[in-house]
Each structure stands twice: as structure tokens, then as C-alpha cells.
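User: Is it possible to get a 3D structure for a protein together with its bound compound? The compound here is S-adenosylmethionine. I've pasted both below.
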Amino acid sequence: MYLAPSLQIADTPVEFIVEYLLKAKEIADNNANVPAELRDNLQKALDIASGLDGYLENMSSQESEPLAELYRKSMSHDWDKAYEDGKTLFRLPITCITGRVEGQVLKMLVHMSKAKRVLEIGMFTGYGALSMAEALPQNGQLIACELEPFLKDFSKPIFDKSPHGKKIMVKTGPAMETLKELAATGEQFDLVFIDADKQNYINYYKFLMDHNLLRMDGVICVDNTLFKGRVYLKDAADEMGIALRDFGQFVTNDPRVEQNNVTYDEVFEGVQGKAVLDRMRLDGKVAYVTGAGQGIGRAFAHALGEAGAKVAIIDLDKEKAENVACIPNMAVSADISKPEEVQKMIDDVVSKWGTIHIACNNAGINKNSASEHTSLEEWDQTFNVNLRGTFMCCQAAGRVMLKQGYGKIINTASMASLIGVGFGKENGEEVKFREKVKFTVPHPQKQLSYNTSKAGVVKLTQTLGTEWIDRGIRVNCISPGIVDTPLIHSESLEPLVQRWLSDIPAGRLAQVTDLQAAVVYLASDASDYMTGHNLVIEGGQSLW
Ligand SMILES: C[S@@+](CC[C@H](N)C(=O)[O-])C[C@H]1O[C@@H](n2cnc3c(N)ncnc32)[C@H](O)[C@@H]1O
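Assistant: Yes, that's possible. Here is the predicted structure of the complex:
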């Protein structure tokens, strides 16, 4: 706490020490019998103690203009009058306010802990709240609990002036009620600052801990824990001092704090210090996605880009590729059924970004015909893109990856790879195979060449995944169920949608966004032990 000298009222232990030293020095100065050496020592102790707060203030980051204005406004307000006029429920002492140094320390804690959500219990005029909000990211939030409705209105004009004020949400009323409300909606905080009624600190603390309001590894900061020294003075009988001492004792003995009994291994500290979500980051990685101009490929490209990778958007249609906004990226047109175009697309990416870490071979086509009528032309076209094309992409990207001893290949297969196609007739009625042989089929569409080519993609993935694993390359595939794309709302396919829905335990079609986390996982180090795997995401359809 630092107050202007004219407003100085001793509050911290150091301020009390200064007050007592000043009195002792005065007595010594007025008493001729006091040895000069004692006076000299008193002066030295006084210099050290009285210079501390001012020095800390000078050496701390300077407050922003909105904070300075809030401080001035709080200091100059007549709080006694506000109480006498019935504006506040209680007589609020100005010593309540968080000081400038403390404000900067709180801001630093938010910054250091990378907190996104902060809870303050006891806001007063909002100096601490705004200090912390300044260190929160744009999408961060601070919830401030304050008993006095007057204070919400008092701080609002200044919060509105600050670009960080919109991150603060003030909840008026008894803090315990607000905590219950937050717990009921499952809220969690990275950092909590307890600074309200001292007798309730222990209750706030217990509630936070018992109701998981603090996220794992979160931090609780508590003001006034030394409370004018009255927590450790032997003869102190002060009610608040005793409450704060009991609080300190409780926290010291709480096994949940600092987690002294944890095992400091990679599970706790993260693999190479990276927590699980950090291990999914793709910063610095170079990726390409084929068939990325729309649908699943576009969603994959976005997801990889969001996770930090540079992404080459590859599509037969260059215009579509160029319209995919995912930064940083490059658009390349390529027909993956043509070996020279596959090689060129790989060369283009390597010449722009130096290498390829993530190859997402997603392009494919789907044609429907009853098996007895499937033409060789349909079969060849389907296989040329879906299987031969995917093989050529794996091989060309794989050669780049083998040289660097690292790579992640993710092929798009299909739930259709799991299941055969076909219908049978029984007593003249068409029946599904699965009713006869307990074997699911994608139906009623007939797509032998598609299903077979996608089964080939799975086998290609399994074979490459095991062949190249010892050279640093993982090859996996994703098998989506029926994805809700504009294509399936065509006149011919729309009637099938109802039929499909009745076959999907999840009760809905897949959205492309349902697949995004999977591609990031398979592209990241988090999936290093997975290879040759077919990750099926179909809402349970292949199980029914
Ligand atoms: C020490 S001041 C807080 C200072 C503030 N953190 C700052 O940055 O300036 C304590 C505040 O807690 C509020 N308060 C006291 N009891 C409360 C309760 N039961 N629920 C919510 N707020 C309470 C008071 O009205 C007062 O504004």
C-alpha cells in the first residue's frame, strides 16, 4: 500500500515500523542521555524502513493514465459523506485501495501466469481490477465481486475509458453468493485475488477449493495476510488479525496447496515441459492439404493453420484454393491423379517453405453405381484419385520427410472403408446385408469403387505407417462418416438423408468441424505413438 504522504496512515508492517522508529528517534533526540551511537542506529533503521515503499514505487512500471485517474478519483472522493448520504452500505476507508506497486505486482502475476480468467473478491473502486485487466489477453475476462452497488457506478466511467475495461464484469452483492452462482455454471479461474471482508477469507478460500473454481495449477493471491503485523504479534487480540492468522494456518496445512505430494514426472510437468494442449501446437511446421478448396479439406487447412502451421492449400480448382483464408498460406492447383502435378506441388511447397512436415492427403472423388453396372472407367477414375493419387502424394511427400527423419502423413479414408456394399433380396424384398450377416453397409447408395478404394487407403496407411515409423514418419488416416456438405443436399441424395440419420447413433450427420481436432492431433507430436491407425469419426454409425 502506498499513499501520498499527506494521506499516510500506517497500514503495512513496514509503515508501522517507520511510525515507531520516528517516535523512538524523537524521544532519543530530546534526551541528552541517549548515546549518539543509539541515535545513529535509530536513524539508519529509519532510513532503511522509510525509504522502502518510495523506492519500490519508483522502480515499478508506471501506471497507465486510466489507472492514475482512477487513483486520483478514489483518493479525492469523500467516502464518509458517501456513507452519510446513504450511497454506500458501509463506511469505506480509503486505505482499502490497492496501491500502485501492488497493482503492478498483480498485473505482473496475470502476465506471468498467462491467466485468461481472473476472479477478484472485493473490488472497491477497481484499481486492482483494472491493473490485472491490462495484462489479460483481448479475450480474457475478470469477474469482480463487490458488495457495494455504488462502487460499480463509481468505476464504470473510467473502465469505459480504458481499452481494457470491457474485460471486467462487476457482480454486485455478497461475494459468497456470486461464488455459488459461478460454481453452479461450472466457471473456472486461472487466478483469484481475495481482498474483501477478512473474516470471510477462509470461507472464500474453502469454497474456491472445494468447488473447483480454481483451475489446476491456478494461483490464489491474498491481500492483507500480514495485517499490520497483528497476525504474528503475541499479544494481538484483534478479531481480524486472528481471522487472518487462522486463514494463514489453514492454507499452510492444506495438502491441496503447492501439491507437495505430487510426482514431478512428465505427466505432471508435461513432455519436455509441454502440457498436453501445447503438444498439439504446430508452430513452425509446414503442412499441405489436398482437396482443400472446400469441405473437409478446407476445415483441415484451417485447423492446421489455427494450430500454428503454415499451410499450402491444394486443389484442382486454383480459384477455390485461393479463396481459403488461412494465414499464412499458399494456394496451389494440382490434379493428384497426375504424377507430374503431384511432384510439382511438393516442389512448390518445398521451394517456398523449405520442407514439408505435415502431408494431409485428402482429395478424393465419389461415384455411385450398382456394382453389376460399375464401369471400368468409373473404377479407374476413382482409383486414380483416391488410391493411386494418395499413394503418389504419400511417396513424394515421404521422400522429403525421410530425408529429414520427420513427418506426419494423414490420409482421408472413409467409414466406407470399414464396410462392404450391397443389398440382397429376400422373398422378393430388398434387405440390407447387415440384417442377414450382422455386417454394416453404407446404404442405400451403391459405391463399390469408392468403398474399395477407401479400403485401399487404409491398407496403404497401415503399410506405410509401419514401414516408415523407424525413420521418423507417422502415417495415419481419418475415416469420417457421412459429412453434411452441400453435395448431399442435392435432389438425388436428399431423400437418403433421413435414412442415414436413422442409422447414426449420434442422431445427426458429421460437420466438417467435427473432424478438425483429429487432424491437428495426428499432425502434432501428441500422437507420436500412433501410426497406421484408422481414426473413425462417424457418430457410431459403423457400430449399428
Ligand atoms: C480492501 S477493499 C478491495 C480493494 C480492491 N481490491 C482494490 O483493488 O482497490 C475491500 C472491498 O471488499 C468489499 N466487500 C466487503 N465485504 C464484501 C462481501 N461480503 N462481498 C463482496 N464484497 C465485499 C468492500 O465493499 C470493499 O470495496
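The CA atoms of residues 224 and 395 lie 65 Å apart. Residues 61-223 form a domain with the Rossmann fold fold (CATH 3.40.50.150).
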